[in-house]
Every structure is written in C-alpha cells, then in structure tokens.
Amino acid sequence: MAVLPAEEKYAVGKRTLVLCLADCHFGAEWTVRGLRGEVLNRYTPEVFCERMSELLLQTRKILEKEQIGDVQLLICGDSLDGMLRASQLMKLRWGVVESCMRFSEYMAQWINELSRYATVSVCGVDGNHTETRSLNSKRGDFPGENLEKVIFWFLSERLKDNPGVVVYSETEQQKRLSVQGYSILLTHGTDVRMMEKAARQSMLLYSEGIDFFICGHKHREQECISGYTDQGNAVIIRVPSICGMDEYAQRLGYGGRPGALAMVLEAGYGRRCVYPINL
C-alpha cells in the first residue's frame, strides 16, 4: 500500500482515529522463553523503537485507508518500568530518571512525525510503575509523585510550537475526554479487577454516561460490554502492551503479544471499525 505523503493530510472531519497504546516499560530488558527454550518475547530499548516505528507505519496506512486527518492518541500508563521491586534493578539499562528523559524525547519526536500526516491530540494517565514511591512509601501513599507527569509536561513543552499537536500536559489516575461526541474514560487499570463492572461503577460514581472505558496494565487485549448509554453500548477495552509479555505476566499466566489498538469513531454513529495492531 502506498504511504500517504506528508503534505497530503486529510481534512479533520466527522471521524477520528483513536490510537491507544499502553505499557511501554521503556528502559527494561528481558527475554521470556517457552517450555522448549524458544524465545516468546525479547524486549530492549532498541526493540521498543522498532515496534514504535512499525506502529507509526501502520497508523499512516490506516489514515490513508480511512481518509482521516485527526488522531486522538491515548497513552494508558506505565511508560517506564520503574523500580517497584528489587528484582527490577536487573532489568533496567539506565536509572529511572535517565529512562524518563530518553523516553520523553523519543515520544516527542515520534508524535512530531505522526503530526506530518494528521492533527494529533495527546492524552495520558498515571501508571503504577511510574510511581516514585519515595521514603519507602507504598502504592498510593503519594499519588501525585508520578513520572508520567514529567513525561507529559515535557511533551507539552517540546511540542508547543507545533500547530498540529495538542498535548494535555496534566495526568491523573483517570482522565475523561470527548471524541466526536462520545465520552471516553481513560485509566491505567491497576485497580480494575472485573472488567464487566468497571464502566458501570464509574457511571454510578460520576453520574454520567461513559461510552468507552479504556485501560491497560495486564499486557493483553480484552473487550466486553457493560450496559449501554444514550449513544449505544458502554464498551470496556483493555489495550495490549508495547512491551509484550514479561516474566511476571508469564508466571501469572496472562501475558499477551505486543501490540496497540486503533479504532475509528464517527460522529452520530460511534465505533465504525477497530484495527488490532500486532507489533
């Protein structure tokens, strides 16, 4: 398929490509092997860059196929691997701070390249691996101390002179946004235990309809329906990870192949189609 030249952006209209990526765990290195010693997943910073290049290429092809000029990029947390356990020290190539710097700069360049082909809005949420957990604190003790905030502040500053990019610089545990008139609630998904109840609980808590509840965290894709709104079904989507299965997910038996997810939202219709992206 021919790649759309940068100067031929499609006009922003009644359809938006919602591009969801999660769990980059940048800076980590690991190799997961199967029962016969075969490599199930190998991950390094270089592999991350290769997968992101492939994601950019596939996104460009989708934009051309669907003739869409508007991308809503949702980053679902755990951009970095962090140091939640001592065992993670063996997986990190750099320290967490340097990983944060390198990831932020890479993503700024990646988003800048994507903006050559479409107008891009960027939104993200805090992850659990990006918590700093200072002073031997436990998860949730200092919810504001999260490196995702540094990443998105950097992206906002780095890309502020690009008229084709809007970065929502503030990150929270949950983020609500509207795309083509449909309500999206974005979260990392650390505390999402039962997918079927996630959207319903949020609708009751905030007293408003949620059309799409999107999260990551478990390094695998999953989807279910939980009730309906005035606009249609309330859909809960768990996004696959960029990093793929690690040894922890392997032990728990729920890892999946690396990937991302894109879907076309159309005003007055809803989700027109879904593109599972294998990386």
Structural overview:
Helix content is 25%, strand content 28%. It contains five helices and 13 strands. The longest helix is centred in the first third of the chain and has 22 residues. It is globular and about 50 Å long.
What letter string, H or E per element, gives the SSE order?
A: EEEHEHEHEEEHEEEHEE
Overall shape: globular
Major sheet details = 6 strands, mixed
Number of helices: 5
Beta content comes to: 25-35%
- The end-to-end distance, rounded to whole angstroms, is 18 Å
Question: What is this structure's SSE topology?
Answer:
Layout: E1 15-21, E2 30-33, E3 39-43, H1 45-66, E4 70-75, H2 96-114, E5 119-124, H3 147-158, E6 165-167, E7 174-179, E8 182-187, H4 195-206, E9 212-215, E10 222-229, E11 232-238, H5 247-252, E12 259-266, E13 270-278
Parallel strand pairs: 1-4, 4-5, 5-6, 8-9, 9-11
Antiparallel strand pairs: 1-12, 2-3, 7-8, 10-11, 12-13
Helix pairs in contact: 2-3
Summarize the structure.
The chain is built from five helices and 13 strands. It has 279 residues and is of the alpha/beta class.
Structural key phrases:
single chain, 279 residues, alpha/beta, six-stranded mixed sheet, five-stranded mixed sheet, 25% helix, globular
